[in-house]
Amino acid sequence: MAKKINTTVSAADFFPPSDKPTLPELAAAAANCRGCDLYKRGTQTVFGAGSATSEMVFVGEQPGDYEDRLGQPFVGPAGRILDRAWEEAGINRKRVYVTNAVKHFKWEPRGKRRIHSKPTVAQMRACRPWLEAELAAIKPRVVVCLGATAAQSLLGVTFRITQQRGKLLENTGWAPYVMTTIHPSSILRAPDERSRQAAYQSFLADLKHLPIIK
């Protein structure tokens, strides 16, 4: 009988040995993650950023081109929109942790550009242990899911932002309050300036519903 070959199917195979790993320990371990095939295309793992005492966690889909090159989440154009919205909503950036549901950049070539490609459900599930561990280490009061991938990673693949957007969800098991809204990158994709302004104001209104952390 042929010997059964064990295959890695999850980020959990790369966890540090500690029962309660810290964020720095998790980030160091994630740098070597091979839990799915996305490590082959991404420049590096892009782990979350912020303090373990953060009271809010914002979860995006995956790092973009800027983030992949720099190794930090939300440092590109979408991150600048998020920074602006936090300021206008009265959210203290120093008390926010930012991360992504998937830690590697999934992309397809288009000429000389690298264009974002949506992660599969299998890739989301393989990477979810990192997100679960981040939330366990932080124990935030509020989790904000930015976009469908982040929302479905935590709330199930059948979850629809169109039905629950902007609502404070309780009893999810992740934090006292969870909210879902659009990803700021969708504002950038609006067809014209008027549409972008409308999308931004709607996004800002969602953030203003949060229990504000000054």
Topology:
Blueprint: H1 23-30, E1 56-60, H2 65-70, H3 77-89, E2 96-100, E3 107-110, E4 113-116, H4 121-138, E5 142-146, H5 148-155, H6 161-164, E6 177-181, H7 184-188, H8 193-207
Parallel strand pairs: 1-2, 1-5, 5-6
Antiparallel strand pairs: 3-4
Write structural notes for this entry.
The protein is α/β, with parallel strands linked by helices. The protein has a single domain, classed as Uracil-DNA glycosylase-like domain (Uracil-DNA Glycosylase, subunit E, 3-Layer(aba) Sandwich). Helix content is 36%, strand content 13%. The protein contains 8 helices and 6 strands; from the N terminus they run αβααβββαβααβαα. It has a 4-stranded parallel beta sheet with strand order 2-1-5-6. Strands 3-4 form a two-stranded antiparallel ribbon. A hairpin with a 2-residue loop joins strand 3 and strand 4. Helix 3 packs across helix 8. The radius of gyration is 17 Å and the shape is globular. It starts with 22 loop residues before the first helix and ends in a 7-residue tail after the last helix.
What's the gyration radius in Å? 17 Å
Subunit arrangement of the protein: single chain
- How many angstroms does the end-to-end distance come to? 63 Å
CATH homologous superfamily descriptor: Uracil-DNA glycosylase-like domain
Query: How many domains?
Result: 1
Order of helices and strands: HEHHEEEHEHHEHH
Shape: globular
- The class by helix and strand makeup works out as alpha/beta
Low-confidence stretches: 1-6
Strand content: 5-15%
